[in-house]
Design a protein that fits this description.
Structural class: mainly beta
Strand order of the largest sheet: 1-2-3-4
Order of helices and strands: EEEEEEHEEEEEEEEEEEEEH
Strand content: 35-45%
Distance between the termini: 39 Å
Largest sheet: 4 strands, antiparallel
Radius of gyration: 18 Å
Number of strands: 19
Length: 238
């Protein structure tokens, strides 16, 4: 596909129904003249269908079978940068930490400001069908978002970079510094009940590089190393 538009930087590319593709840029500056569009939707021939600003500081973007777009924001997206969050700029679009947009790219749902622990930075996002899962700072709970309902499982695991789950079991993959290859598995009971720890490695036994991108989708972990794409099932980790 050859696209007909100027593309946002630091992109996340996601599939949409009917062969469409969403191109989501991580950064979007606000100026008094305009907010920079960083969500672009193309048809299957590469023609631009729509564009919008969906917020700055996007750390994660995943789409659903119905064409919705889930976004997880970094601390800059939550508290503001690039003109957002300070006079004369508006509040950050990602101030809730997790946002679900409709098929028209407009915000449809935002993580609640009361009830669950607030999101200061979304560390991991996992969209399975139409249900969203996330893991975030502060506190590092696992949450499931089904419609407007949020269920919380507290954890004692900090700094993971990916969440993999089948709804009853979960794996938290990655971590800070020496724990970047860590895998912590457990059951989703009243809390996340840890059942085991392991180390993630590439098929040849070498460590997963620190620069690798880790993403969870349902019960599968996706690991991107340069142009290589690896996949692991939750059952193989537990």
């Amino acid at each position: 596909m050859v696209v007909s538009a100027v593309l946002p930087s630091y992109p996340m590319v996601q599939p949409l129904p009917d062969g469409r593709v969403a191109w989501i840029g991580a950064r979007a500056a606000w100026t008094p003249e305009a907010a920079e569009p960083n969500a672009l939707v193309f048809d299957d021939t590469g023609d631009l269908l729509q564009e919008a600003c969906v917020g700055d500081g996007i750390e994660h973007a995943q789409t659903t079978p119905s064409g919705r777009l889930w976004l997880g924001f970094s601390d800059e997206g939550v508290f503001g940068n690039m003109g957002w969050g300070s006079h004369p700029g508006p509040p950050p679009l990602g101030r809730s930490g997790i946002v679900r947009c409709g098929a028209d790219l407009s915000p449809q749902w935002a993580f609640p400001t009361s009830g669950p622990p607030p999101v200061d930075a979304c560390y991991a996002l996992n969209v399975d069908g139409e249900i969203g899962w996330a893991y975030y700072y502060s506190g590092f709970p696992i949450v499931r978002i089904d419609g407007d309902d949020v269920t919380v499982w507290p954890t004692t695991v900090g700094g993971a970079k990916a969440l993999v789950t089948d709804g009853t079991r979960a794996a938290l993959v990655g971590g800070y510094r020496s724990e970047r290859q860590r895998v912590v598995t457990g059951l989703l009971e009243t809390t996340f009940v840890e059942s085991g720890r392991a180390t993630i490695a590439l098929p040849d036994g070498s460590p997963v590089p620190d620069a690798a991108q880790l993403d969870g989708r349902g019960d599968q972990l996706h690991v991107f190393v340069g142009h290589d794409w690896y996949r692991a099932d939750l059952s193989a980790m537990c």
